[in-house]
Amino acid sequence: MSKEAFDRCNQILQHIMEDTSVPRNIRRAAEESRDLLAKDDDEPTIRASTVISILDEISNDPNIPIHARTLIWNVLSELESIRTD
């Protein structure tokens, strides 16, 4: 279950990273999140929790475009489901 969810999250994060209308700090956080999700040495719930805290913080950034904020919320909801499984 978590593998498919991480794959979906990685696709969304990749999309954010490639979007030049998104501020650089947001793209950097998306890249850091994607890298954390790819690490197999931690429990999936720990990886999900770590990425949730990173993305939750940047989702409140006033400079984030609304489309990127929506994508981040999608990733957050996907990761929340992993924490509760």
Automatic annotation (TrEMBL):
<comment type="similarity">
    <text>Belongs to the UPF0147 family.</text>
</comment>
<dbReference type="InterPro" id="IPR005354">
    <property type="entry name" value="UPF0147"/>
</dbReference>
<dbReference type="InterPro" id="IPR023130">
    <property type="entry name" value="Ta0600-like_sf"/>
</dbReference>
<protein>
    <recommendedName>
        <fullName>UPF0147 protein MCBB_2327</fullName>
    </recommendedName>
</protein>
<dbReference type="Pfam" id="PF03685">
    <property type="entry name" value="UPF0147"/>
</dbReference>
